[in-house]
Amino acid sequence: MQIPQLMHEQYVQAREIIENAEDIKVYSHIDCDGICSGAILSTILDRQNKPHEIEFVNLDVLDDIELTHELTIFSDLGSGQNITTNAKNGQKIIILDHHPPLRDLDYKDDKDYTYLEINPLHHGIDGSYYVCGGGLCYFLAKEFGYSDLSWIGVLSAIGDMQNTKTGHFEGLNEIIQQDAIDGGYLELIENDLNIYGRNTRPLFVALSYFSDVKLPITNNTTETMAILEELGIDEKHNRKTLNELTMEEKGKVFQKLVEMISKVVPGRYVRYIPQLIIGDSYTFLKEDEESFLRDASEFSTAMNACGRNHEEVVAMEVLKGDRIIALDELESISKTHRYNLATSIEKVTEGDETKIIEMENLQYFDGDGIKPEIVGTVTGMILGHCNWKKPIIGFTQTDNDGLKVSLRCSRLLSYDGIHFGNIIRKIASEVGGSGGGHAMACGAYIPIDKKSEFLDRFNSELNGKLIN
Ligand SMILES: [Mn+2]
Q: How far is it, in rounded angstroms, from Cα 446 to Cα 188?
């Protein structure tokens, strides 16, 4: 895939607008993709000697926002919000977003302010799998000649789960990936053994987090150690990481996992097993060998940890190159974040067995006291403690007396064609809330008194759709 001609012309225009602006504000989203977008834009502006303000925000603060600068740039958000309501004569707006746009490509015509929206969906390019916010910002950087930022574009796409459908990057993401490889920033190993924590977690720990299917090794390091011993890998449990394994050793682990998973999944799921444990791995070659920044998945987790704790600027400074002060802060934020996750998970899984309630087609828990920002991550981690054949839904109360709902499920269910993001959007709106997201990781906000109606409707919606 190439950048369409019209889209390329938009990038040329965006560059001109930026070169001619002196008073600039950037709004970006609070997740890994948004933080990467902000870091790329901020680097462009620094290199162009353009003083600028940058703010990471939730989508809900954007509607009818007051524009207070000569040029306002929105990245990884803006397309779906009413950001032009208060645009004044002579102001300039640039949007770089991959979410469904409210406004058409010709919206800019006959306005007394400058409006430029770069959105792949205006050009027939899928924004879920072919390019995300950070990628769109990278192409702007490339227009300025800053191809060295390609690796941040790759990181944003990992964080945005753009490769979940096929396990590989496609479309415009493939161009970014190639730029990063050509520049010597990225090593891509296709069809590598894909287990989270390849660089920092001892393999026996990393394997114990396997939760797409409940295996003997799930949450059981005694069992993972026994298996590695059986395979003749890391026999002394000397905390070898996946990265330190030879290809032959990785092959043995792969075989063993296939064998274990085959025993517990129904026949129709067997063909999806390799997808669960094989995938492309991404290594950032400029990072220290032992650093958690070296593996793209681990790097993106750290970015998200910052987003969940309103420390996006720390994450952005690390991306922009500060590997001293900001990196220290990033490590301490990640550590606190992991502690908060662990204590939240304990609350739900330990002691009273009845906290995870199973219905016919789903299971749920009340995460009272769990911060809304982390309930999604917690829900995903609880999947390893319950029935993988059904989705798990976590609830927690928000500040304004609503309920935040998070859903996670085994990747096997999404490979089988269920898109929970679409289902949760429908059910949430039926009970007066709103929601959406990915096939296997999504969420919603609903009125607090609608919880049981939401659960009943969701449960019926899934009739006949899950594994029996
Ligand atoms: Mn995004």
A: 41
Q: Which residues pair with 436 in a beta bridge?
A: 443
Question: 116: which residues sit within 8 A by CB, 6+ positions away?
Answer: 10, 13, 14, 17, 92, 93, 94, 95, 108
Of the chain, the end-to-end C-alpha distance in Å amounts to 41
225 phi/psi in degrees, rounded to 5? -65, -40
Mean pLDDT of 178-192: 96
The pLDDT of 129-153, averaged and rounded, is: 98
pLDDT band at 48 (very low <50, low <70, confident <90, very high): very high
Q: In angstroms, what CA-CA distances link 103 with 4, 47, 78, 322, 421?
A: 19, 31, 10, 38, 23
Decide if pLDDT at 237 tops 70: no
CA distances from 14 to 18, 81, 333 (A): 6, 20, 35
Neighbours of ion ligand 1 (CB under 5 A): 33, 76, 132-133, 160
Q: What is the DSSP letter of 101?
A: P
User: What is the 79 CA–ligand 1 centroid distance (Å)?
Assistant: 11
Å from CA of 133 to ligand 1 middle: 5
Alpha carbons 87 and 79: distance in angstroms, whole number: 15
CA of 340 to the centre of ligand 1 (A): 25
Domains and CATH numbers, the chain: 5-159+171-176 (3.90.1640.30), 191-345 (no CATH), 352-461 (3.10.310.40)
Both structure tokens of 356 = 């995870």
